[in-house]
Task: inverse folding
């Protein structure tokens, strides 16, 4: 038995999947889920604790929560409000630093941190990058800036605490049916109707130069986190993604729509206008970052963790858009379902 695993951000898209796969693993005796708000969801083999990582006074409580744990999986993250990056900085950066310090203070032997493809510097268009690619992010976007900053913080943490095994997971965009309502709210806005995801409804999809991203089923990402938490050999960074890369051609086929070339500048201007009017939560700075994301080589995760995705990216998106149409969700505050339109 590996005893107890603590998961921060345990009620979100990735957190719910990580909690579930850990609770189902016979090597784990107890999963402690940490969240700002307690969920109705209570899978067998779990317990729940509350903490607001943005608050400085949460630090002593985190040490007590972590004491006696065999690993901490740190997933907690705030995407909003994009108009107030100081607020997200308090949760994402300062909150993460409190988690790292509590891991060391509590004597936890392993830390698994949720980094991201967004931590990477802009990459080449003609090849995938491995985990040695620079992680300086895109400086204008809060999300990528914060992910990059924490990579530097972990560099220092590993030098100061060599007794702690640190694994940095760098997944592509993670989707599942149950996350559809949450992710629609985060990126598309509260009133974006799920019906827009119905194949055949839209005659065209925009073909934006440079827009090509990787996706991954959240449950597949969760399995990599599980392995990293339990394996004594899992340390360092791990890219996580499924194929094929998603571009306008692939999305056009999925949505029965014709790709139409649209200048990136025109799309950015529209995104910026909607964001300034608070009609769209996703910022134009994030749009800039997404256009520059590299494609990731996942061979290290396969070789070291023995991990492989079980679903391809197209089936992941198909499941997700079904969830959008149905207003799918789950019994946690972040994942509450809602059908719009």
Result:
């Amino acid at each position: 038995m590996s005893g107890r695993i603590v998961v921060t951000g345990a009620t979100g898209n990735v957190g719910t999947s990580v909690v579930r796969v850990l609770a189902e693993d016979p090597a784990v005796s107890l999963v402690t889920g940490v969240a700002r708000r307690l969920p109705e969801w209570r899978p067998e083999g779990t317990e729940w604790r509350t903490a607001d990582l943005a608050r400085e006074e949460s630090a002593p409580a985190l040490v007590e929560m972590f004491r006696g744990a065999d690993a901490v999986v740190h997933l907690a993250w705030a995407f909003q409000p994009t108009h107030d990056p100081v607020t997200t900085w308090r949760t994402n950066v300062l909150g993460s630093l409190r988690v790292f310090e509590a891991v060391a203070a509590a004597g936890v032997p392993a830390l698994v941190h949720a980094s991201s493809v967004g931590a990477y510097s802009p990459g080449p268009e003609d090849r995938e990058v491995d985990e040695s690619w620079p992680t300086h992010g895109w400086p204008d976007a809060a999300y990528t800036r914060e992910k990059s900053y924490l990579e530097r913080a972990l560099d220092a943490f590993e030098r100061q605490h060599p007794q702690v095994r640190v694994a940095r997971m760098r997944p592509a965009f993670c989707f599942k049916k149950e996350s559809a309502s949450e992710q629609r709210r985060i990126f598309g806005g509260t009133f974006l109707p799920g019906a827009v995801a119905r194949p055949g409804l839209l005659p065209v999809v925009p073909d934006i130069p440079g827009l090509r991203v990787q996706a991954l089923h959240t449950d597949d990402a969760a399995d990599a986190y599980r392995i990293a938490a339990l394996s004594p050999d899992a340390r360092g960074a791990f890219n996580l993604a499924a194929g094929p890369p998603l571009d306008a051609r692939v999305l056009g086929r999925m949505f029965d729509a014709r790709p139409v070339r649209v200048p990136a500048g025109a799309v950015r201007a529209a995104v910026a206008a909607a964001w300034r009017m608070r009609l769209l939560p996703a910022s134009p700075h994030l749009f800039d970052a997404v256009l520059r994301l590299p494609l990731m080589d996942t061979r290290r995760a396969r070789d070291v963790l023995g991990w492989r995705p079980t679903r391809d990216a197209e089936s992941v998106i198909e499941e997700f858009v079904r969830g959008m149409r149905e207003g799918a969700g789950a019994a946690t505050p972040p994942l509450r379902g809602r059908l719009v339109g």
Notes: The chain has a mean pLDDT of 93. Residues 16 and 26 are 18 Å apart (CA to CA).
